[in-house]
Amino acid sequence: MRVRTALPALITLAVTGLGLAAAAPATAAPAPAPASVSVAQAAGHDVYRGWYLSKGNCEEAGRAGVTRGHWDSFSCAPGRGGFLWHLWSNR
Questions:
Q1: Closest CA to 83 of 52, 44, 56
Q2: I want to staple 58 with a disulfide (CB 3.0 to 4.6 A). Which of 5, 29, 35, 85 is the partner?
Q3: Alpha-carbon torsion 20, 22, 27, 29, what sign?
Q4: Residue 71: partners with Cβ closer than 8 Å, 6 or more residues away
Q5: Confidence (pTM)
């Protein structure tokens, strides 16, 4: 018997034979939290633009957006753990 067909068959037999499929009770999954809950929104800037690994990269991307005319102002807010920076803009 080939390994590609034998492995799924053995896993199915083990789950069925041990009764693992019925052992876990059916519970409702928790509702996913909105992504903006964990990201601190900067005052006056209501559009989230993304995250960066350093404050310098965040500020560079913000200045590039101002230069291109995509937004008028921006801010970089620290994220969880202090190593991610989140870019916010006014539009």
A1: 52
A2: 85
A3: positive
A4: 47, 65, 89, 90, 91
A5: 0.53
